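Narrative summary of target 7.
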Amino acid sequence: MIPAFTFVQDVTRPVFDFAKTDLFNKLEKWLILTYLVLFSRGIVTLVMTGGASEGGGGGEFDYGFLTLLWLLNYLITACLCVLKWDAIKDRLLAIISSNYFYWVFLMFIGLSTIWSEKPDETVKATIGMGGTVLFGSYIVCRYSIKEQFNLLVTFFSIVLVSSLFFMLIPGYGIDFAKHAGAFRGIYSHKNIFGPIMSMGTFTFLIYSKTNFCVNKKLAYLGFAASFFMVVGSRSSSSLLYTLLLIFLVHAIQVLRLRGQLFAWSLMALASLYFFITTWQETIKVTVLNWLGKDPTLTGRTDIWDVILDKIQERLWLGYGFDGFWHGIYGESFYVRNAVRWDLPNAHNGYLDLALEIGIVGVALLMLVMWISFVKGLAILKNDFSWPQVWPLVFIFYTLMINMSESSLANQNSFQTIMMTIAFTSVSLEFNKYFKATAALPDDLPSAQGELVQRQL
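Modeled conformation, tokenized:
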């Protein structure tokens, strides 16, 4: 055994030595950026379909190549964890020990195999979810909050530049069939491009306010270009959410000046939220008529009525993760038959998650979001910094976008990677700022109380 172990050490030592070089770090960064584009469904999907458009007469496509690329990502991420273990182990262990409810949520996804209507699909989807979360966690372990933010800015810059290039190619960057003239950039549909650019808009806006922004003019250009792309995508929901998020960022900038004012403002925002929730039907019809949209959200609400019936059948635990939407071969056949539409999902992230893992699963994820949001607010009140604002704005973005799209806790999803980054980075920063309180000696209660008051 000892000679064999020595042989393995001798063989792998050059690899570990190379992993410590600047060249490896640069290659690692560009590999991560490449996979972020892939997980966002950019370029590869559009090229594989030959620029096929909804309503353009395109047929079925084989996405097996994408599956291979995702499996390769899981393997590469695992290898990177081994190669960079000394650099990431402390942050990784801190993430594991401070995100209990997120891990419970992920374990619940795996347990849904037991009651799933499609256990084989649930197993595969669970593996995909694990690989996706691992990739997001590795990014947080590997890079500081500032480096993560710079990585996101680079990603959205790549999306913007490459989208402009694809828009010059007929039949690719600009839709030509059902949504003729709508921008879709490097993506296969405007409703993928719109939300991505919405996220890019508030990311560039926050970046322009940081003290490490290299060029504010370029940051504002990125903000303006992203907003222009949202408008060009003709996704009215993305435009509405983008405007609300821009308002939120500016509101945070104003309200951060006074801690008490900040607290009262949060209460006002909560009251506004409950008002909108109470009068949502009247507000919805008014706003949608103003936007020139069907009050049924292009038939979505009709779909949701049917889906709610299916949710009632398995209210608590659902049909298993990725156990519902399988065309005529799954429980989705009932919905498809009722609405006469071959649906890929519910066009609502909350309903899709309830279908898959019931209201128990939805409640777990909402609890994780709430905990992360409260921790994020505590961090900002203790030591305000713009990079720390991004996770909070992203949580708002996720809550809003999933009212009309399905991007809540999906495997092999850019949104899931961003969600993991938001949750885990907030927990790490929270521990950094507040662990001093827990470390105070028991015989210094007055000092402990003083520190708590100062931090809160």
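The radius of gyration is 23 Å.
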